[in-house]
Specification:
The protein has one domain (3-82). Helix content is 49%, strand content 0%. The chain contains three helices and no strands. The chain starts with 24 loop residues before the first helix and ends with a helix.
């Protein structure tokens, strides 16, 4: 286990919060609640770096970003590396 995980704010809440199911309004509300936990997290950056370093992007909210948001963040970097 990464050392930063012990200090993560998500340790204080139900892990299911970070894995919304579906795309409806209840999933969006859950996603925003998870992001709110991330915003107060002292290890948000290492969490995000860890998610971005995975060979297969993990699902759910990591480092305050959804899987789609992390993919969008990676696209410009990927294009730059291909040049």
């Amino acid at each position: 286990m990464d050392g930063w995980r012990a200090a993560a704010a998500c340790q204080e809440v139900d892990p299911d919060l970070f894995f919304p199911v579906g795309t409806g309004s209840s999933a969006l509300v859950q996603e925003e609640e998870a992001k709110r936990v991330c915003r107060r997290c002292p290890v948000r950056e290492p969490c995000l770096r860890s998610a971005l370093a995975q060979p297969h992007p993990p699902s759910g909210v990591w480092g305050g970003l959804t899987e789609a948001e992390r993919r969008a963040l990676e696209r410009p970097a990927r294009r730059y590396r291909l040049r």
